[in-house]
Amino acid sequence: MKDSNNKTNGSVDSHLDNSSDNKSKNEKFDFGRLLVEARKAKSHTIEDVSQYLKIAAHIIIALETNDKKALPAPTYARGYIRAYAKFLEISEDKVLAIYNRAVPHNTVSSLKPRSNLPGEANSQSPLIKAITILLIVAGIATLIFGSFQYYQKKADVFGSQIEEREQDISDDQQNFSTTKALNIRQNARLTDDDDLIVDKSGFLELETKAKVEIEAENTDKKIVEEDVAEIKTVAADVTEKKANEKKESEKKENSDNTAINTIEANMATVTSEEIANSETGNDTVEIFTKNSSWVEVRDANQSRLLYNMLPDGSIRVLVGRAPFSISLGNARAARVIINDLEVDIKQYIRSSNTANFKISTQEQSVIFH
Predict the structure, then answer these.
(1) Do 262 and 140 reside in the same domain of the chain?
(2) Among residues 42, 162, 39, 56, which one has the least CA distance to residue 111?
(3) Which end of the chain is more exposed for a tag (fewer CB within 10 A), N or C?
(4) Which residue windows are transmembrane per the record (predicted)?
(5) For 29-63, what is each residue's pLDDT tens digit?
């Protein structure tokens, strides 16, 4: 595979050499030759450059072969040249000066400007959203199952206690009946004439004991009834809690879906605004991010040209009407150029590594508003 790539790079470089010899004999307009020589000196392939700068390989080839017809609008092409020259560690201004002689400012490319660099993709892919939703549903299901097991175990304990108390009460009743019959037999006797004589004093004691046992039985029944009522209350609470948890789960799922739809709608709106706003105005602002940074750019008409998180090594070229209002997150990792003039933003960077400023140009000078 590596040999195949080397052969491809060799054929591309050969094509670049032949194209450069045929199309760029006049070094005054040959900006591509500087890029080719610098790239070969550093032993980089076109694929290496494309992958690092996130610029399509056919754009790299068009730059190196001076193929102006294959390049985008001059505003975007200058941004690519500046990024490519910086990567190769050669003079950006020298390459741009040759390009400006070869391509006048009023030259319009046959290709439409690109609003997004290659490789810049939506991080909210369907797979990521599906995995996130599945994890949320699994967590909720685990919580509901654990709660059900806990309350089920508690209900089983209450049921065992009730069965034990009912058994004790049944045993007490049986013992009471047996004792009562025995006492009656002991307190009764027959005379010589076969008359039954019953000792009533024993009955009073027996009656008192019976009343005590009946009261104890009633107390036990009351306790059992209270326990049954408590179990019913717990069961009702468990049922209600399950219903509430199900409603909360459905509500949360609906809320998540609504949030995802809102994010996607906002991203779509931002993208359409950037495309629309990039087609108006005469001034140019270029944003370079070494590390990922949040960027918002508005022009003099308060039209939002950019509102997005830019990943590592991103380049954005925006066209509008100055002055531009710019807000940066992770400002120390960002670089701003307006109308080919470098902007020194150090004095506007706060301790939180953010920056807010408004800029325009006047006679090759940057003006802060």
Answers:
(1) yes
(2) 56
(3) N
(4) 130-151
(5) 788 999 999 999 999 999 999 999 999 999 999 99
